[in-house]
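User: Can you predict the 3D structure of MFS transporter? Sequence below.
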Amino acid sequence: MPVPPTPRAGSRPRPAWRTPTVWRIALSAGFADLGYQSVLAGFPLFLVLALHQPAWEYGLASGLSYGGGAVFSLAGGRLGDRLGHRRVALVGNALIPLLSLCGLVANPAWAVGLLTGGWWARNFRSPSRRAMLVEAVPRAEERSAAFGFLHALDVGGGALAGVAVLGAVAAGLPYRWIFLATVVPLVASTLCLALVQDVGRQPLDPVRPAEPSTEPSREPASRAPEEEAPEPPGARALLGAAALYGFTLYSVGFPVLAVAGPKHRVVAGLGAFLVLQGVSSATGYLLGGRLGRTPAAQFARLGLLGYLLGGLGAGLVAAAAGARLGLGPLYLGVALIGLGLGVVETLEPTAMAVLTRTERTGRGMGALSAARSVGTLVGNVVMGLLFAQGIDAAFAYAAAVGVLAGAVVLSAVPGLAAWERRALRPAGPR
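Assistant: Sure. Here are the predicted structure tokens for MFS transporter:
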């Protein structure tokens, strides 16, 4: 009988959550970002520099895309709970290539409309794709690593998009061909999702001790239903912080325009996009499983390393632009924004999965995406208007609201810690 090979000394076994299903969902995310992030990286330059439109029009276009997407996020999450998340995710993902057509028209209104339509399709599928990952990883303590892995491949695709667009623009290729080529990875993204089997709803393990106990009395399942799982607090704080974070500069076009500056340094601006995406991707991959296993720990790191750190990065961009410190400090600020973004995109859905019931996972993810979208509806318009006053004014605003988002989510930590103690307390005799 063959003997299984002995693992090499120092080698780590593959994590149990990294299943073929998780790989397919994450690869779908990577191909999707490789496609639409190429458009997002080049669109502000296309609209402002090629079509000669003011920066506030880009802010308005981003606001329409994100703000209108709130309705599609809510609808997608609810329909996913009713009709099945795989089906809804496939429909939305298949319509994202609408934004690939925006470079084929010279009319700014049509270009914005096509970009917006594709982005709304992306919002429609996002809650269901997140819910699919939650269903594929039922153990709560493994979900932050899984969402970090998803974010790493997701934004890793965006980083590759930055490299591709940077090379294409430097080579003088027209924007219409750059954007049209993104149909290929977007189709590949939909094919990856189509290969995912319908996982179905599984019982989710909302919270467990850091060291699992063998004592039956410590298992939350031994409690009566009303004692077993009291509704965890923090959902409103999480949604409020997500909306406030949306009020900042979630549209990555603004860092691109900030680094490009009045001198229209196109290559430098696309370099900022690459820095933001690369740092964000590395953060999700390297730190995803180390950002806390319990909701209270996750909220604390979300507030400190996510929102507050992102606000600090925006403040550095504002200071560097105002004092004309050069590209180095600007890139450092953008890197801090990317680090904060990696933490936020990993921990927001991880925390929401704990704060919602199993049968309402899609609604919870839809509400999270909608809160972000409502914030960006206002935030991108405000950023666009402030950009006309100066880059420093726009990013100072972003820094202030990022700090406020951190304060909101940190305010929920004591209540979550108390809820965890109640959930893990041994049940008394009945």
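The radius of gyration is 22 Å. Residues 202-229 have pLDDT under 50 and may be disordered.
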